Amino acid sequence: NLGFVAAAARAAGVPVLYYITPQVWASRPGRIDALKKHVARAAVIFPFEETLLRAHGVDATFVGHPLVEAATALPDRAEARRTLGIDATRPVLALFPGSRPQEIARHVGPFVETARELEARIPGLQVVVSHAPSVTIDPSSVPYRLVRAPSLTLLRAADAALCKSGTTTLEAAVARCPLVLAYRMGKLDYAIAKRLVRIPDIGLVNIVAERRVVPEFVQDAFVPSRVADALAPLLDPFSAERAQMLDDLAAVRAKLGEPGAAGRVAAMAMELAAESR
Hints:
Structural class: alpha/beta
Distance between the termini: 24 Å
CATH topology of the largest domain: Rossmann fold
Largest sheet: 6 strands, parallel
């Protein structure tokens, strides 16, 4: 905790290495001052964070994103489908409605509506729904197969995905799965977020790309028919839209660095400990 633990450690003369810093680039930029005051070194997981924090006097080092390590062991699409029992001969759309009850309550209905639109357009489409281990989804609310599996494996098996905002959008990039982002929140929460958040896009994949490479349908813009329009070409193996997005996702993946983030952080910790003796 930046406000208490880091401050207490500094007051006791213990140097602080902060791994995965707060997202000061998205909201509450005043936290940069606290980082500068209490943290000896920061290990960051996005390249633009190093640039931003160093510009404000924080000794920050980009170490790479931990997702890259996980992606090194990913199966190919055929193996992922065999593992999950998914028909390898038909197109697959994966739905990721969230990992918290409130998120799922807001997203399952319109996600299912979007999938139904696509089923009417794409013969043989298979739809599977990610079932996070932290929640229980009522099977009667979802007319598709619920899959409890690592997100990366399911993304690897899918031809395209519909994701709510969050880490899943980055997982799609490292799994090379084209996607569309759709997100709804409570009206009050949205009004507060609009005042606090300082960036134009909410998807991590777009933030890392520093431009919109994945369509975003947020709040009132989240209309199932429009989302289906954006997803349909991504499910076509020969479309220009799919090819372009795969190129864009590869560029995002490259920006996340090389495997070995944990080892680099450990080396920073050892270095800092040696310096403080």
